[in-house]
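Q: Hi! First time asking for a complex rather than a single chain. Here are the components, and I think there are two in total. Is that enough to go on?
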Amino acid sequence: MRRVIAALLRLYPARFRRTLGDDMLATFDEQWRERANWRQATRTVASLASGAALERLHGCKKGDGRMTTLIHDLRFALRMLRRNPSFTAIAVTVLALGIGANSAIFSLVDAVLFKPLPFSDPQRLVMLWERSPGNPRNRVSPLNFVDWSEQNHAFASMAAISGGGGTLIGPGGIAEHIPGQAVTARFFDVLGVKPIAGRTFIADDVKPHGDAIVLSERLWRNRFDGDPDIIGRAITMDGARLTVIGIVPANFQILFKADFWTPYFIPRRPEYRQMHFMQVIGRLKQGTTLSRAEAGMQVVAEDIARVSPSSNKGWGITLTPLREALVGSELRATSLVLAGIVGFVLLMACANVANLLLMRGSARTREIAVRASIGGSRARIVQQLLTESALLGVLGGVAGVALAALILGAAPSLLPADVLPVWLRLTIDLRVIGFAAALALITAALFGLAPAWQASRIPLAGALRAGGRTVTGGGGAFRMALAAGEIAAAVLLVAGAGLLLRTLTSLDRVDPGFHADRVLTMGVSLPNTRYPQPENALAFYQSLEREIAAIPGVRDVGLGTILPVDGWDIGQGFQVIGQPKVDDSQQPSAHYQMVSSGYFRTLGIPLLRGRAFTSDDTAANQPVCIVNQEFVRQYLKGRDPLGAMVSVQAMAPAGPKPVVRLVVGVSHQVKVEGLAEKENDPEIYVPIAQNPWFWAAVAVRTEGDPLSMVAAVKAAVARIDKQEPLTRIRTMDQVLAESVAEPRFRAGLTGAFAAIALALAAVGIFGVLAFSVSQRTREFGIRMALGAQSADVLRMVMRDALKITAAGVAAGLLLAAALTRWLAALLFGVQPHDLVTFVGSAALLAMVALIACAAPALRAARVDPAVALHHE
Amino acid sequence: MHDPRDLLPLKPSDFHILLSLAAAPLHGYGIMKAVERESHGEVRLELGSLYRLLGRLLDGGALAAQESDDRRRNYSLTPFGRRVLEAEARRLAALVKLAPVRKLLREAKG
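A: Yes, that's all I need. Here is the structure of the assembled complex.
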């Protein structure tokens, strides 16, 4: 609410704001503390809007003659609007909906596409990737990064980032996982981040067993109570002592959520050439272009490949502007689609208000005729009407900005997590207010021109002679065209929402490849300080399985590297034995999972051939693996997969090392990166006892409600290691739901806008028909006096309704056919020209429109000729 | 300084604001509450209208503003403002004296 008030204060003249603005905010705060309710909020907003307008007018008073005319017009317009409160309320509400929705979406589009990224001098920032034979955007190995930053001439500075969470022991001894990033020395310099206290990293901080840590403002305030003396003090994380050297502002985030940063030291050991897991950002030198940098980096890549051919032959470097790297194509498409949708909603709002004004214009024919006949020039009259429209536009704009502030204030709790990039903030800033102001004026021009034009053509004599009674207002055809246009726009939006909804239902029908209701899942991540070797991790995992299996109500427990549909975690190169040997750098890679014997059973992943892992598949015995259907299809075609030997890179602290494994089973295909995954990924599963690693996903099948077991599972973990927090505790159903959170959100939001469009279209056609019926009462009366039946009159009105509806629906279908292809990137399992959706949208609109027409049509049919003729 | 009577008659809300400050300086929210209380809820000044009037009265020299220790400001009557208030009060009192003469307040008395 305070943001709304602050935004409204910007409407006041600068001089007024300077002297009284701060105090107004202070007074508001005080009042809001005592009376925080909707009624008070509306009153305050209304009083501020009118106060600002009056202050501005006051400032103009000393102006010239034209100004006085304007003020005069404004006064008159205000009086007219006040005299018709229901008209004003409807028009302002409709405009506020349109402008509010557009401003809120503009805030998103602006942040995603236009506004400079929130880093210093952002157009010089570039994201760099390795280009492997199979993947143009592969992550970067630490030593390749070192060579890049030392050998290039195009970049002023470069930094590499790797994931790195840690555990803090909070009050009450409860372990909490804190997300963090491990970064190279120049990280904060590349992005131009200034600390709010202390300093950021320097080269000396980056060393083996370095102990420097930078905290986010959020972590500092929440976990260290904003302790002003924290700089230079030691904190304990993962059992190690780290020295806080600086705090960076709360709104600084990049790539993924992080609340602390530690320096990442890169040892010059060969394995650091082969593990590709870092993300690299560079700042171009002043005046260097992206293409020049690309050419330069190509040379660097070739030099590295000459020196280390086994790891780097055929690998290049991909450069993309940082914005392109940070804003995925899906978010870009979603923003643009939403902008298009709210644009249509605004056009419909304009059409509605234009219609309202036209009808009122007809009713005001006499007033205008009188003014013209006593000497008011047409220009003056048109100017007066335009002033009224502009005032409506301004009121709608102010209410719209307030609405947008409310929408954006609520957005963070409505949006599913991870839909928006971490660095993106949705706010009402000057750009949004400017946009809303421009919209208000443009819409005012759009809906104001028609009535002004209509008024300027009123034939004087006729209007006066009609004696102040109704004249059949001109522009009937135009009003009908507007209503038809609204129906067309609604057909388009309903069709769009329908396509996104059908996407959702097709996603629901996708076979994820596993069957897991009543499965609780969680993540564990073991810090190097307490678990230095993989064998330590294995011991933890084995105790964990034992402890959890012993809990009453637990049916099964399994461990893996990651859960199905939760993303691609580790990819490892492999080579089928017996096929021509290739360099490590040319090996294909498969999704690599280190799983316990219970993984397949617990998650309900069927084994199609062979056997599951058993407790005998240990490091001491024959190395084995299970591959999935896609792996067999691509790499073991035409032979019995069981008994095949595959050399797979294993995870090892000293870097990947090839292990020859016997294929003992073939598993059913599961979705790896989410239900909308279009291509099947090849997977290799290895027994966790033969290759334990430092993080794992745990799945627990339960007899009852899985969430009721959380406390028991936590207690089991605490019995093994009190300092080990569980992360991401979810049921498998939730994991599935999260994988379709974005399409669900898109369908919901679009559906809401489609519903608004439907309502606007219904109101539009209802208004036009109701008005035309009231204008034609006399005509109907005469017809019925001359022998027409109610049914004839009913038919006459319904013919109009059908004409409007048919034209609108037809135009809407054409519009949809032309525009829905822009949705293609967001659709799954349904074509942009889906017949069912199109026919359904057309039918829905036809039905709603005809229902909206029923009332005016029936009223026409019930006209009593005696009364109607008397009335005139 | 100009004649306080130039400003008369005062708008009711202006009068209420000046009246609320007669005893002691108040900050913005204090004025809001005092006016509502003293007018028995008849006059409610919302944020926008209150500050528009305050701005007018400050410009006219009837009020003065001081920064107080916290971030709020205190508003007080200037000597000129006090004279305006007195003049208006006298004007109103004179008017009200006419009311019994015209037998308007009889019921209220009884």
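A: Residues 378-414 of chain A form the longest helix (37 residues). Let me know if you'd like any chain examined more closely.
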